[in-house]
Every structure is written in structure tokens, then in C-alpha cells.
Backbone:
């Protein structure tokens, strides 16, 4: 096969830069594999290694510093047939550490070549995440305080199934790259390199020194047996092909005439764990069955299992503009902290308004009628309270009926969950009529 | 088709599926996570891809790669995530990569309050990335808009090859509403224009055009994408005239066309001396306030609800304000878009009322501000 190097843009690295070898090594590897230009994408980032994409005549994506693996993954998942090769330096490695770990864990079929020359060539020779402590670089004493990371060990422990450490001066460089690119999964090549313009000036190292330094580190030569597993993209396509579309966004048709035709504003004031928001959904579902328009606005703390939980519903025959409840027709007070959160609502209620409260909850001053319900008498548990109160509300037929509520339940829940919910309704039905508080 | 009861985030997901979205990646963040949930339920089963990125930077990065491979892509986050998107948003502008970005805004600054709504990123979405070149921001007011504007957002991203923000808010994204799909506007779909014949340069525009024809990475013709300052060939350039021509085109391709995608509702009342200007969730309180003002006080007021926020639809603002003496801009922040309105309506009295407490601006507050006179 022909070389995929760009005849119009020969490499322009500093004289003696080892990146030149990496470019040629990669080109030889692509030739050996018989890959055509349009089958290869080179994704590069910033710095001297970021020039790679321009030296090849292939598809090319040159993006932000450290993010090359993310673009590469987007391309590969969209076009599994392409060979996607990522080049970055030790700069991109450090700044994009999270992406390296994710790529290792994920095992999408990408090849990552890290041109590791122990410093930032382009910005003036500052230290990178691989600079040895004893090196003299443009970052003063700072690099002496930080330990260099071993890319290979990190990649292997993060789950990369193919990790190779190599010197760019190795004779079998292109063969190593062939192995990495042909590997069916994520492959990492830690390519130890020399930057004559910056690093070499103050740290006289030779290819032999590189070999000696590498020999002191754990050997990584291709497949990591403990990380062998299926490739992510294939796994993804297999699993996603078995998903069913849910929800189907089909919607429901009007089943009932609305028991009241006027607009109603309702608020449920409770606590996390009382299924306040679910009860709001059920109420809404019932109103939708009667062809009404509904908004449901929720307010809760970020702590999922603790704190007040409030849901505000507006049920209206016509369009609803403002979604906040201003003057509620119905307030259901389930817990004291919920009622406290909605304290302001009560004084705004008129004598037409109705407050349904569980026994023992103190209701602030209001002109509305207060109806107390002893849920304990029907052994209603905390998580059943909101639903039980809905069934009490349904007894009044305003704004929903028992029939509407049951139907809404049947639409929302199935199996065991439905049986349990219907049981709550049955128990709530045994409660005596509510007592009106003077 | 019956009536759905969905939150704004689900309506965005429905719009995205309708618009032909094939790739979605996001990092979970309240109040945008229900959109990730909805896309995960909807897209893979239809053959598309949903990724949960390792962070926000990765999530938008996945989308940019996929978009260049020809996918229609979307991502979703809230203010803290938009901060992390910034560098890739400017890349999408520079590299002319179509992407829809949903920002379900929450109370800031900083980490702020995850479950409280706000419109605090209105200037940030426009100006929050390096270089300062324009992008498009659309703002829904309800679940219907969430569907329709998401479709528009995809169309605009494709048509102009640029990032398009959907400026949602916790109070829209996580508020449930009835949605009758039979009556929802479903715009016809637009796909990015493909290069068809002749030699191809990735950023070359045809005469009279401002948007380069697209070819996907991976086809028989080689494609280059780059975040570096480039000429039509997609290679880095230092030629000042090429650079100037390039950035002016990036500005012109969007700003010169704003009238073709200015979405708004103008509700004019006879003899109104005041114009209310609002967007997002606050537009609904403004609508309620206008009703109350007329019904209870006999005070007519006109209302302009802007659904295209950036580029600023100057012509619509000028026309809407023509007959009034006073303009009142309402925002769930301490005053952001009002700067644009004041710039455009320099000769008018432009007042501002805003709130940033995590609570909605109420119709009563707006009535009070109007009557203040
Ligand atoms: S600065 Fe260093 S890495 Fe960059 S081209 Fe020059 S020698 Fe090579």
C-alpha cells in the first residue's frame, strides 16, 4: 500500500525531534495494515503532537487540548467501521486524565498513541505529568515536588485491555503500532520520546538512557490478560438493539366528563417519602382523563429522602399561563414540615377553600374549611398517606371522583404496585367521614 | 393521538427524536437529568446512541465527534455544566459543527441551588466562550415550546452549522404539563447541506453562500476538522486577510439571517401605553398579569414574548415598542437581557423588574410594577 503521508505538508518538527520517527512509524504501520486513506481518522489535540493530523492524508479531527479521546469516541460510535487513531502528548494526557480513565474502562476500539517526551515542548518546556522529579525543566522547582505518573500502570489498572510501553527508537516501532491498531478494543501505546529543543537542553538523555529508564518500570507489551473483554461498541449495539421504546408517548384520550368544570388550584404539602409528587401525578392523570389541562410544579430539597416535598397543581378547562398556585382551592397537609414550607398559602385561601390535614398537623390561620383525617385508624403508612388523602378528596367529587382516581392508578401502576395502591384505597374507604375543625 | 402529561425535559426529548437526533451525550445534573433519562429510554431503542459522559467536557466532546461523523447531536446540562462546555462551544462555532445544547437553568451563581429555577445564564450563553462570535439561543415558555423549539434548534444547527442553545429553566424542564400532540407545531425538518460536486474544501463556501457544504468524516472524500484558525482548506493559517474574512463570515452567517428565525409572540392591546417584554417561564406570569391588568384595572398592556433571544431580534423589538411610552423587561435574574432591550430601544423608557430567589416572578408583582407607573 502507498504511504498515507501528506505530500504537501512534510513534518516540520525541530531538527532531531523524535516525533519525526513516530510519524514515520505510524505511516509504516498503516501501510503494513493495507489501510486506505478514507478508512483512517487521526484525532489529535494541542502541542507538537497536535500537528500529526496535518502530516497525514487521512480523515482528520484536530480539537481541544486533552479532549481528543472524546471526539474519537463520538466518531467511532457513529462509524464503527473506521480506524480511529488518537495522538496526544504528555500534556494532553495530563489535562485529559478523566477521559483516559473513561476510555480504559469503556474499551471502545480506539488506539491512543501518547508521544511522551516528559515536558511541554510548545509552551516552553514546563513539566508535565510524566516529568521525572530530578529533571531540570522550565517550571523551576515545581516538578521536583510531584511524582511522575506511569501511564501504562494507570491505564492497565483502569481496565485498558492493551497497553504497550515502547521507545520511539525501537526498531520494531511500526510492528508495535500495527499490533495496537489491529487490536479489537482500546489500545494504549506509551511512546517514550525526546524533545531536543526543550527537554534535551538541560537533561542530556540518549535513546540508551530511555531504554535503561524503561527497564526499571513494569513491562507492558500488548494484551493485558486480566482486562480482556468484549469491545464496547459491539456490546453497545447488542444491548441497545434489545431495548424497547419506553415511554411510547402515545397519550390518553378523554374518558370522563369532568365532575367540575371550573379551574382548580391544589397543593400537596408533605415530606420526602410520602410520595407527594407521585400523588400529584395521579391527580393530574385523573384530570387528564376528564379532558382538563393540568400543570404540576414541584418543590423539594436536593436530599432525596429528607425534607419537605411540595407539589402544586392547576387543573383548568382552558390554557394555563402562570404555573404557580396563588390562591389554592384545596390544600392537603400531610406533614408539619410540608405545611410549614407552604405556610403563606393558608392566609390567601378563601372560605370556599378546603384544607385536608392528617391528624396532629397544625394548620396556620386560614379562612378555609379545615378537615382533619385520622389516617392511622386505617393503618395508612407514611408512603401511603398522599394517595389515601387523594381518595378522601375524591369522595367530594371535586375535582376528581373515585372512579377517575382508580383509572389513573391503573394507568400508572402495574402488577404488585397496583395491587398495593388499590389496597390503600380500600383501607381509606373504611375511614369515617372527616371531622370538620371549628 | 391523546393527551400527554410530560415535563419540559421530556418534551425536548420528543422534539429531538422528531428532529432526527441520533446521538445524545450528557453528564447528569439537576434539573437536566430527566432529559438524559428520557433520551436513554427513547434513543437507543430507535438505533441511536446515548452516552453518559465522565464529565461535561467529555459529553459535549462526544457530540462534536459524532456530529462530524454526520450524526444529529444534542447534549443537556445546567449552568455549572455550561461553564465546562465553554471551550467546546467556541470550537463548535469555529469548526462549524452542528450541535443542540439544552441549558436547563438553575439558581446560581456557582453551584447555586440544584432544584430552584432561574434565568441567570442569558448573557453567559451568548458571551461565555472565547472569541465572542455569535451563536443562537432559543427560549421555550412551556412544554409545547419545548417540543417545537427543539425541532427549530436542530434545524438551525443544521442550516447554519453552529451550536444552538435551548434556554430552558427548572420551572419548565421539570414542570409537568398536558401536551396535546395533535395541536403542536411540528416544523418541517432541515438537514445540513451536503457537498455534491466539484473539488471539496471543508470550509469553502460557494459564491453567495455563508455556510460551507458538509461532508462527514469517514466518507470517500477526506474531511478535515480543526479548532485552529483555519482557511477554507481546514489547515491552520496566519494570513490576516483569510482570518478576517473567516470570522466575519462566522458572524454574518447567523446575524444577517436572524429575521428568518425570530420566534416570538406579540400580544398587542388597543391603546396600550406599556409593553411587557419577557421570555421563558416569566412570560407566563406576564401573560397572566396582562389579563389581570385589563380585567381588574382597565389598564391595557401589550406583551412581547421573545423565543429567539440571540441574535437579538432587533426589528421585532423596535416594531413592538413603536406605540408605547414605556417598556418593562421581566427576568428571573438581576437584569441581563434588559441591556439588549435598552440598547435597541435607546430612545424609550425601559424599566426592569427581576427576581433571583429561586421563586417565580408572580403576576401580582408584575401588576404592581406596571401600576407603579
Ligand atoms: S519543541 Fe520539542 S517536541 Fe516540539 S517539535 Fe521541537 S523538539 Fe519536537
Residues:
Amino acid at each position: 500500500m502507498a504511504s498515507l503521508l501528506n505530500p504537501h505538508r512534510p513534518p516540520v518538527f525541530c531538527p532531531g525531534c523524535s516525533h519525526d520517527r513516530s510519524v514515520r512509524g505510524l505511516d509504516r504501520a498503516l501501510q503494513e495494515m493495507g489501510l486506505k486513506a478514507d478508512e483512517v481518522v487521526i484525532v489529535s489535540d494541542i502541542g507538537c503532537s497536535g500537528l500529526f493530523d496535518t502530516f497525514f492524508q487521512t480523515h482528520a479531527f484536530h480539537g481541544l487540548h486533552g479532549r481528543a479521546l472524546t471526539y474519537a469516541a463520538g466518531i467511532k460510535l457513529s462509524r464503527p467501521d473506521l480506524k480511529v487513531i488518537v495522538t496526544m502528548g504528555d500534556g494532553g494526557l495530563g489535562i485529559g486524565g478523566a477521559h483516559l480513565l473513561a476510555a480504559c474502562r469503556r474499551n471502545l476500539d480506539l488506539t491512543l498513541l501518547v508521544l511522551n517526551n516528559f515536558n511541554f515542548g510548545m509552551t516552553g518546556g514546563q513539566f508535565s505529568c510524566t516529568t521525572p522529579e530530578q529533571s531540570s525543566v522550565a517550571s523551576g522547582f515545581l516538578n521536583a515536588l510531584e511524582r511522575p505518573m506511569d501511564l501504562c500502570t494507570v491505564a492497565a489498572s483502569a481496565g485498558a485491555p492493551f497497553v504497550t510501553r515502547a521507545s520511539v527508537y525501537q526498531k520494531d516501532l511500526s510492528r508495535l503500532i500495527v499490533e495496537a491498531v489491529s487490536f479489537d478494543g482500546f489500545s494504549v501505546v506509551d511512546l517514550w520520546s525526546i524533545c531536543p529543543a526543550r527537554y534535551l537542553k538541560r537533561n542530556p538523555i540518549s535513546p540508551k538512557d530511555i531504554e535503561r529508564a524503561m527497564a526499571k518500570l513494569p513491562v507492558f507489551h500488548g494484551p493485558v490478560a486480566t482486562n480482556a473483554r468484549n469491545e464496547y461498541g459491539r456490546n453497545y449495539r447488542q444491548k441497545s438493539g434489545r431495548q424497547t421504546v419506553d415511554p411510547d408517548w402515545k397519550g390518553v384520550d378523554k374518558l370522563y366528563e369532568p365532575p367540575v368544570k371550573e379551574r382548580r388550584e391544589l397543593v400537596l404539602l408533605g415530606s420526602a417519602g410520602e410520595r407527594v409528587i407521585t400523588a400529584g401525578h395521579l391527580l393530574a392523570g385523573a384530570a387528564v382523563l376528564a379532558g382538563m389541562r393540568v400543570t404540576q410544579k414541584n418543590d423539594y430539597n436536593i436530599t432525596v429522602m429528607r425534607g419537605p416535598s411540595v407539589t402544586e397543581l392547576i387543573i383548568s378547562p382552558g390554557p394555563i399561563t402562570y404555573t404557580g398556585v396563588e390562591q389554592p382551592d384545596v390544600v392537603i397537609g400531610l406533614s408539619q414540615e410540608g405545611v410549614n414550607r407552604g405556610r403563606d398559602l393558608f392566609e390567601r385561601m378563601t372560605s370556599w377553600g378546603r384544607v385536608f390535614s392528617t391528624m396532629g398537623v397544625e394548620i396556620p390561620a386560614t379562612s378555609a374549611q379545615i378537615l382533619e383525617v385520622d389516617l392511622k385508624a386505617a393503618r395508612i403508612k407514611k408512603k401511603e398517606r398522599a394517595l389515601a388523602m387523594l381518595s378522601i378528596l375524591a369522595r367530594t367529587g371535586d375535582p376528581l371522583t373515585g372512579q377517575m382516581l382508580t383509572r389513573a392508578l391503573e394507568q400508572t401502576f402495574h402488577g404488585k404496585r397496583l395491587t398495593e395502591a388499590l389496597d390503600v384505597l380500600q383501607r381509606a374507604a373504611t375511614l369515617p367521614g372527616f371531622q370538620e375543625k371549628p | 393521538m391523546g393527551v400527554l402529561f410530560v415535563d419540559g425535559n421530556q418534551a425536548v426529548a420528543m422534539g429531538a427524536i422528531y428532529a432526527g437526533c441520533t446521538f445524545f451525550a450528557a453528564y447528569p445534573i439537576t434539573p437536566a437529568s430527566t432529559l438524559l433519562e428520557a433520551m436513554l429510554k427513547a434513543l437507543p431503542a430507535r438505533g441511536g446512541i446515548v452516552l453518559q459522559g465522565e464529565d461535561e467536557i467529555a459529553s459535549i466532546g462526544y457530540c462534536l465527534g459524532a456530529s462530524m461523523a454526520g450524526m444529529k447531536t444534542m447534549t443537556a446540562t445546567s449552568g455549572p455544566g455550561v461553564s465546562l462546555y465553554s471551550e467546546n462551544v467556541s470550537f463548535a462555532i469555529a469548526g462549524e459543527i452542528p450541535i443542540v445544547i439544552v441549558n436547563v437553568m438553575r439558581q446560581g451563581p456557582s453551584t447555586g441551588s440544584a432544584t430552584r429555577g432561574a434565568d441567570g445564564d442569558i448573557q453567559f450563553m451568548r458571551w461565555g466562550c472565547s472569541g465572542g462570535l455569535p451563536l443562537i439561543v432559543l427560549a421555550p415558555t412551556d412544554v409545547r415550546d419545548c417540543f417545537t423549539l427543539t425541532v427549530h434548534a436542530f434545524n438551525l444547527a443544521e442550516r447554519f452549522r453552529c451550536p444552538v442553545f435551548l434556554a430552558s429553566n427548572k420551572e419548565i424542564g421539570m414542570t409537568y404539563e398536558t401536551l396535546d400532540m395533535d395541536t403542536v407545531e411540528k416544523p418541517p425538518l432541515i438537514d445540513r447541506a451536503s457537498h455534491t460536486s466539484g473539488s471539496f474544501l471543508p470550509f469553502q463556501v460557494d459564491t453567495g453562500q455563508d455556510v460551507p457544504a458538509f461532508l462527514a468524516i469517514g466518507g470517500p472524500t477526506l474531511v478535515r476538522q480543526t479548532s485552529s484558525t483555519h482557511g477554507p482548506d481546514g489547515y491552520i493559517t496566519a494570513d490576516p486577510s483569510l482570518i478576517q474574512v473567516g470570522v466575519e463570515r462566522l458572524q454574518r452567517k447567523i446575524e444577517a439571517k436572524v429575521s428568518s428565525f425570530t420566534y416570538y409572540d406579540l400580544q398587542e392591546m388597543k391603546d396600550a401605553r406599556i409593553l411587557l417584554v419577557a421570555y421563558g417561564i416569566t412570560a407566563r406570569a406576564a401573560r397572566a398579569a396582562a389579563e389581570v391588568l385589563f380585567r381588574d384595572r382597565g389598564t391595557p398592556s401589550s406583551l412581547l414574548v421573545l423565543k429567539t433571544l440571540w441574535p437579538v431580534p432587533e426589528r421585532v423589538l423596535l416594531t413592538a415598542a413603536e406605540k408605547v411610552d414605556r417598556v418593562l423587561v421581566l427576568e428571573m435574574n438581576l437584569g441581563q437581557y434588559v441591556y439588549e432591550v435598552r440598547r435597541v430601544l435607546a430612545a424609550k423608557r425601559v424599566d426592569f423588574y427581576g427576581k433571583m430567589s429561586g421563586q417565580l416572578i408572580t403576576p401580582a408583582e408584575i401588576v404592581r410594577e406596571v401600576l407603579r407607573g
Summary: The first helix of chain B runs from residue 8 to 19. The mean pLDDT of chain B is 97. The two ends of chain B are 47 Å apart (CA to CA).
